[in-house]
């Protein structure tokens, strides 16, 4: 695994969870927050933690913001600080900035001031949970950019038989890219592969195609 370097700006619930998880995965993680208590709470579970104002360009320059693979601005409810930190990071050479937003307006502003990627964790998790509740057979799902996505489905009565018989590309425009059967994973299974109840089937397709597939499974 390639060890990557992350700078997390903001050690609130989201930022600290993100930072400590990345660190547990073996990556180098530096956290910045101007609140001493927030930094102390996370400092033993990341590579380095700094008490500083991350909206200040000089602070980010001293940290070496341009050396990180990704900078995550997770300041939370202070949109002004979020914008300032994003602008400061980009202006001094941050390679890739991911900014957290809590509203549509915030997301649009952050994108306009230079954020390479804008996320809305509560909004995105709410949509993801709604989709899973509406379609219980969907185990997990995530997007690939704006137009495509991947879903992991537990095979049931509507998803058993050979792939040739199921004709998923023709019927829905989706493609099976892997099957997990009891921990054994088959990558790119052929047309004669027989899906069985309980299989975990990983499917890729456009968002529209996946929506049609979800509807089929939920009826």
Broad shape: elongated
CATH topology label of the largest domain: Rossmann fold
The end-to-end span amounts to 41 Å
Arithmetic mean of pLDDT: 86
Q: Helix proportion of residues, in percent?
A: 25-40%
Structural class by secondary-structure content: alpha/beta
What proportion of the residues form beta strands (DSSP E)? 25-35%
Q: What is the number of beta strands? A: 13
Task: Tell me the name of the CATH class of the largest domain.
Answer: Alpha Beta
Largest sheet: 6 strands, parallel
Poorly predicted regions: none
Strands of the biggest beta sheet: in what spatial order?
3-2-1-4-5-6
In total, the number of domains comes to: 2
Number of helices: 9
Question: In brief, what are we looking at here?
Answer:
Helix content is 38%, strand content 29%.
How would you sum up this structure, described in words?
This protein is of the alpha/beta class and 219 residues long. It folds into two domains: 5-119, Rossmann fold (3-Layer(aba) Sandwich); 124-218, Regulator of K+ conductance, C-terminal domain (Alpha-Beta Plaits). 38% of the residues lie in helices and 29% in strands. It has helices at residues 13-24, 36-42, 57-63, 79-91, 104-112, 121-134, 163-166, 168-172, 207-218; strands at 5-9, 28-33, 48-51, 70-73, 97-100, 117-119, 138-144, 148-154, 161-162, 174-181, 184-187, 194-195, 200-206. A six-stranded parallel β-sheet has the order 3-2-1-4-5-6, with helices on both faces. The chain has a five-stranded antiparallel β-sheet with strand order 7-8-13-10-11. A two-stranded antiparallel ribbon has the order 9-12. The mean pLDDT is 86.
